[in-house]
Design brief:
This protein has 552 residues and is mainly beta. The chain is 6% helix and 54% strand. It has three helices and 28 strands. The chain has a 24-stranded antiparallel β-barrel. Strands 6-7 form a two-stranded antiparallel sheet. Strands 26-27 form a two-stranded antiparallel ribbon. The chain is globular.
Length: 552
């Protein structure tokens, strides 16, 4: 009944807006999208697929937005009554979990309903949608965004956070202010300096009675009903150079993530970039400790997260370099990333006739120092202030390390290639719970040949060698494109180490206008699907797949 009422209310609202816009002779635009991913599963004992009784599984989304001069509105229908493998049981269902109305007047916007927001880098607040991970942690409430003065932006919000088909009981409220000082101070603007200062505050109000955590048979924790988090930042840009420094803190927040300790949380970040004349540089460092921040303290996994900690590791698009992705450790870590890229110009000794691009990236993530080594886990500190930690001192574990070098080169007018070498260290015990340290070397070669304006062929060959986990992997792909509509792809991911299993896949893709349809058949290996340091385990699957995407 509630789902039906929601549908009727939103439909009436959208229709009413359309009629009002037409009556007032004001332009009204409508946009939206449909995304449907379907799997017809098959059992396969060789790759240990989970037995699924349903004949068809699908994650389907349909979204519509109506925009006018003074009022916007939108809604999203989600159908996950039989979700794809790897999505938590809580995600099963269907309905309209996202809708909003936004009023706009000059430099002020007021949103009622669901909304996404991020303060700064997201250390104290980031709500977003990531369908590949089953994440939608939007807030249901009200948000006000205003620019009362030149160079000043203020955000104020409050709401309850979505957790699948429900909202958590806690109220999340906050405010953010950004000042663009270069718009106030003429000497800065005249010298080409752009200086922005930002500050944020977020409060989570969660009743202590919602969770009762017992230390022993007679004692339970006194849980704080209010948890406060704050963030300050400065961003300075001068020509090709940009520097961002940010620091955030959090009050006592005992939760499942930290073993219910009463330690304060902190995160500090420094990031510098340079880009000019074909040269790009990136250097960044981050130290975080006890910064897990959820709207429900007893939750785990990807749900109910308020804060976001960027991983400072490269997100790889090739299959084997992405086989062991890094998941940010909210309990604490030191993370570093260095990257340098350069494009050698055409008709030079290193650039050749068509130019050459080289990029080198290094990422390293290490444990922070902790003085609780006598405890086997954080749970041994339950109810205490937790552990101490020297700011600059490292712990005794490497969580992740990635060194890679990429070369992009066009050899002839019709043929170009990409080469990649990667050396990786992956602490499987820390990131996945068991498995030890995995050291791997990965080699990737990609080539694309264009026969004519319509026909091109792309191929990939990848090899991962390691003595850890399942041993070596070999991956091959061929992709034939017939512009402007067709693409045919075949691939095989072969574990030539411990299992000797082939994960083959064949796909046909058809695109026309705003429509894209992809049909395929094959196997997918189990593993972790990650985006931005947030990961979800996905089991192995086999069967027919069908995907449809449409935007208007």
């Amino acid at each position: 009944m509630m789902k039906s009422r929601t549908l009727l209310v939103i439909s009436a609202l959208v229709c009413g807006m359309s009629v009002q816009g037409q009556t007032d002779d004001k332009p009204v635009s409508v946009s939206g999208s449909i995304q449907s991913d379907i799997l017809i599963p098959q059992d396969d004992e060789k790759i240990n697929t989970e037995h699924i009784s349903e004949d068809l599984l699908t994650n389907t989304y349909a979204e519509v937005n109506v925009m006018s001069k003074y009022v916007d509105a939108g809604m999203r229908l989600e159908y996950l009554e039989h979700p794809l493998p790897g999505f938590e049981n809580d995600i099963k269902g269907w309905g309209v979990p996202y809708f909003f109305v936004k009023g706009k007047l000059k430099e002020t916007e007021l949103t009622l309903g669901h909304f996404y927001e991020q303060f700064g880098s997201g250390f104290v607040l980031r709500t977003y949608e990531e369908r590949s991970l089953g994440i939608d942690n939007s807030l249901l409430g009200a948000r006000l965004v205003s620019k009362p003065l030149k160079g000043v932006q203020v955000k104020v919000l409050t709401g309850k956070q979505r957790r699948y088909w429900h909202t958590n009981d806690a109220w999340v409220s906050g405010a953010d202010v950004e000042l663009s000082l270069d718009q106030w101070l003429r000497p800065l603007e005249s010298q080409g300096f752009y200086l922005t200062l930002g500050a944020s505050f977020v409060n989570k109000h969660e009743k202590a009675s919602d969770d009762e955590i017992f230390v022993d048979a007679t004692h339970k924790l006194n849980l704080p009903e209010n948890v406060n988090a704050w963030d300050v930042r400065i961003n300075l840009t001068k020509g090709p150079v940009s520097v961002l420094a940010e620091y955030a803190g959090k009050s006592q927040d005992p939760s499942f993530d930290n073993g219910y300790i009463y330690r304060h949380g902190h995160v500090a970040m420094l990031s510098m970039t340079y880009a000019k004349s074909g040269l790009s540089l990136l250097a960044q460092a981050k130290r975080s400790v006890n910064m897990s921040f959820r709207s429900k303290r007893s939750m785990t996994g990807t749900s109910s997260t308020i804060s976001y900690l960027p991983p400072f590791t490269m997100e790889h698009t090739y299959d084997l370099p992405a086989l062991y992705p890094y998941a940010t450790q909210p309990d604490g870590e030191w993370a570093y990333q260095l990257e340098a890229g350069y494009t050698f110009k055409r008709n030079t000794s290193l650039g050749g006739r068509y130019g050459t691009s080289v990029k080198v990236n290094f990422s390293h993530v290490h444990a922070i120092d902790r003085n609780d080594h006598e405890n086997e886990s954080a749970n041994g500190l339950m109810g205490t202030d937790g552990y101490g930690s020297s700011f600059w001192k490292w712990g005794n574990q490497t969580y992740y390390q990635d060194f890679n070098i990429q070369l992009e080169k066009r050899l002839t007018r019709d043929f170009k290639m990409n080469l990649l070498y990667m050396n990786q260290i992956y602490n499987m015990t820390v990131i996945e719970g068991e498995g030890g340290m995995v050291h791997s070397n990965i080699f990737v070669a990609e080539g694309q040949y264009k026969f004519n304006k319509r026909l091109s062929l792309r191929g990939e060959l990848q090899y991962l060698t390691t003595h850890g986990d399942l041993g070596d992997w070999l991956y091959g792909l061929l992709e034939l494109s017939i512009a402007p509509h067709w693409m045919f792809t075949v691939s095989d991911e072969w574990n030539c180490g411990a299992t000797d299993v082939h994960y083959y896949m064949g796909m046909i893709t058809f695109s026309t206008g705003s429509h894209r349809i992809q049909a395929g058949y094959g196997r997918t290996s189990e593993g972790f699907n990650c985006s931005g340091g947030v990961c979800r385990y996905v089991p192995a699957t086999k069967g027919f797949t069908l995907s449809y995407n449409y935007s208007f």
